[in-house]
Amino acid sequence: MIALPLYEILLRFPDRDEMRITDRDGYELGATFRIGRRTFIVVGREDPTGAGADARIVAKPSPGSTGGV
């Protein structure tokens, strides 16, 4: 069995944080990506809190981005 590296994506909203898990890396500072109909911008990387995660990517909604996640 091959274990894929996992990454936490912490979505920071003004009123809450939401966590997502992905097997995709390459999220560099300032990079943008979409989840659902909303665009996010990477604002940092942190040590992960979840067991088995390799990194935590911190992102905020891009200015002007609206829609569901």
Into which percent range does the helicity of residues fall?
Answer: under 10%
List low-confidence stretches.
Answer: none
Q: What is the count of DSSP helices, taking H or I runs of 4+ residues?
A: 0
Radius of gyration: 12 Å
Arithmetic mean pLDDT: 88
Q: Strand order of the main beta sheet, please?
A: 2-1-5-4-3
Instruction: Give the overall shape, derived from the CA principal axes.
Output: elongated
- Category from helices, strands and their pairing: mainly beta
Strand content: over 45%
Q: How many individual β-strands?
A: 5
Q: What string, H for helix and E for strand, traces the elements in order?
A: EEEEE
- Give the termini distance in whole angstroms: 32 Å
Number of domains: 1
Largest sheet: 5 strands, mixed
Overview of this protein structure:
The protein has about 70 residues and is mainly β. It has one domain. About 0% of the residues lie in helices and about 50% in strands. The chain contains no helices and 5 strands. It has a 5-stranded mixed beta sheet, with no helix packed on it. The termini are far apart.
List the helices and strands and how they pair.
Blueprint: E1 6-12, E2 17-22, E3 32-35, E4 38-46, E5 53-61
Parallel strand pairs: 1-5
Antiparallel strand pairs: 1-2, 3-4, 4-5
